[in-house]
């Protein structure tokens, strides 16, 4: 996961947003981004938000709904 963390960039503070460029290593066998990668990015954004705000916290529960595939070489914003 260190490779993912190195590629994540904070683009705004309010609202807090991170950006990540999806690469071939993030794809599943169908050629689209693995859902676990997207969920990890969301969870990481929660943790980084708390850190930036000087707070301690974690997600106690989370749900994610996938609306369409996320292809390779696309910047996503969380």
Give a structural overview.
The protein is α+β, with helices and mostly antiparallel strands. It has helices at residues 2-7, 35-52; strands at 9-13, 16-21, 75-77. The radius of gyration is 13 Å and the shape is globular. The mean pLDDT is 85.
Outline of this structure?
By secondary structure, the protein is an alpha+beta fold. 31% of the residues lie in helices and 18% in strands. The radius of gyration is 13 Å and the shape is globular.
Relevant terms:
78 residues, alpha+beta, three-stranded antiparallel β-sheet, 2 helices, 3 strands
> Which series of helices and strands comes N to C?
HEEHE
| Shape label | globular
Number of helices: 2
Please report the distance between the alpha carbons of the first and last residues: 17 Å
Structural category is alpha+beta
Secondary structure: helix percent: 25-40%
Major sheet details: 3 strands, antiparallel
Taking all Cα atoms into account, the compactness measure Rg is 13 Å
Calculate the mean pLDDT score and round it.
85
Layout of helices and strands:
Blueprint: H1 2-7, E1 9-13, E2 16-21, H2 35-52, E3 75-77
Antiparallel strand pairs: 1-2, 2-3
């Amino acid at each position: 996961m260190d490779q993912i963390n190195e590629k994540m960039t904070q683009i705004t503070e309010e609202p807090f947003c991170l950006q990540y460029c999806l690469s071939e290593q993030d794809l599943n066998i169908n050629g689209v981004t693995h859902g676990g990668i997207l969920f990890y990015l969301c969870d990481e954004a929660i943790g980084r938000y708390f850190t930036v705000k000087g707070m301690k916290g974690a997600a106690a529960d989370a749900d994610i709904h996938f609306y369409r595939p996320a292809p390779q070489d696309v910047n996503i914003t969380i």
